[in-house]
Amino acid sequence: MPWHQSPVTARLTAVAAVTSSCLALTACSAGNADSAPADPHGQLAHLRIAAPGSSAGYSRARFGTGWVDTDHNHCDTRNDILARDLTNLRRRGQCTVTAGTLHDRYTGKTLTFRRGSASALVQIDHIYPLHRMWVMGAAQWSLAQREKAANDRRNLLAVDGSANEAKGDQGPAEWMPQREERCGYATRYITVATAYRLPITTADKTALGRMLATC
């Protein structure tokens, strides 16, 4: 801490820096659904450590049949995320995003999205992967709780499709985005783990701590 800063000033500065980086990751809009935690370091310290359980019984359908309208705005979650994360938007009707530009936070690429021709180019990633949720405790949840988690805006990001496929079901210890976005990625991962009381592995905790150090 600089000698001229009071502890309170230093604390506010640190929180502002973390929040700014987190918002950069997801182009957050106002509201709790996209808000960043005030203290990801403290949240990380309180996350339970556990080894992954069995994959038995897992399928994507265990988290619902697809994108739903969990916030009752009459648009499905996929279109909500595209509208949040893309610029230069074009729509068909109230909800359907037909075109836009993605400044991808995982790779740094700028991608053009056009519905019907770019589904593989731009995909929606679950930052805390659904399979990982399953093996870390979601297998014991109700279908309604799993569907809510699968459509939680805090855990969703429009990204480069090839990066999403490379990430797959891996956690922070096995995969991370470009260095400039690691703070935001780690913060979001911790947010979701905290919100759903999901444990993390020892290796993931170490990796998340290192990523938070870039904030």
Automatic annotation (TrEMBL):
Residue span(s) of domain GmrSD restriction endonucleases C-terminal: 77-210
Keyword Repeat: no
GO MF, one annotated term: endonuclease activity
Transmembrane segments: none
Keywords: Endonuclease, Hydrolase, Nuclease, Signal
Annotated signal peptide: 1-29
Protein name: HNH endonuclease family protein
Organism listed in the record: Actinoallomurus oryzae
